[in-house]
Design brief:
Blueprint (H helix, E strand, L loop, with lengths): L1 H38 L1 H61 L4 H14 L4 H12 L1
Helix pairs in contact: 1-2, 2-3
Length: 136
């Protein structure tokens, strides 16, 4: 484990050093481009404008795609939940019907559970109270 921990620590230091070297390089390049745009604006200013336009376009496109993906994910989640819920309710009804045919009496309970799921409520407490009333 010590070897793995040492390797992870070495990798973290190397990555941090690489990050700061890259950030420094980008800073120096931007400074020289700014200086060049000040000295010869007709030659270097179009490059600056193109760079700003490119960065803005990429960031806005990324933001729109991310929002679109979120909306699609939400819609797919809703459709899947509706599909799974409808299949579970159908299976509960079929199971209830088959249990009613076998005269177990459990079909009524499953139908009540299916009804509660359709209404979106959790009627476990109400079912317990009904059972208590039957015992009296």
């Amino acid at each position: 484990w010590r070897v793995v921990r040492a390797f992870d620590l070495l990798w973290a230091w190397a990555f941090t050093l690489l990050f700061f070297v890259l950030a420094g390089y980008v800073g120096v390049v931007c400074t020289w481009m700014l200086l060049a745009a000040i000295i010869k604006p007709t030659v270097f200013l179009p490059y600056g404008a193109a760079t700003i336009t490119m960065v803005t376009t990429i960031s806005l496109t990324f933001k729109r795609l991310k929002e679109g993906a979120r909306r699609i994910e939400d819609r797919v989640r809703v459709l899947l939940e509706e599909h799974v819920t409808s299949n579970l309710l159908r299976a509960a009804r079929e199971l209830s019907a088959s249990m009613a045919e076998e005269s177990f009496g459990g079909g009524v309970v499953l139908e009540e559970v299916a009804e509660g799921e359709r209404e979106g409520g959790d009627d476990d407490d109400d079912d317990d109270d009904d059972d208590d009333d039957d015992d009296d």
